[in-house]
Amino acid sequence: MMNASFAIPANKKMLISAWVHEECGTPCTLTTYANNSIQVSDGVTTSDAMTPTGPIIEGWQRYEGTFTTAANATSLSLNFKNTSSSPIYFDDIRIHPFNANMKSYVYDPVNLRLIAELDANNYATFYEYDEEGTLIRTKAETREGIKTIKETRSAKQKKLTTTN
Question: Domain ranges in the chain?
């Protein structure tokens, strides 16, 4: 990623997190992924490979790690390694200061509705809407999987008529 406005402060501990998906069959019988790694390099030092920090949830596993950039670093590179012959996907990659929180939002590009919100731990809350744009379901990603936390259905009552 080349972004001139993105800068990592020197000598500051940073947190990086990401979600990783490997092909593992249906249902996935693995307890952790082992065919990939993520490393951060600032041109002077390279971090240790990040490791999974939780269970596989709906085919995805969260990775998290920390790094501190060197005082004379001028760039930052993320290295995503795949040691298998199958495709591996990396998503929701976030970098922020270790002692800070971050919240991310995902919007539908067509109707601009909020469809997901990523909390400070990089777990998502998903929002589902009906055809009219009314929020009908809220789901949360947890260590045990995706759970429905709120569901609403509303409809206008039709005029009742009585027949004799």
Answer: 13-100, 103-156
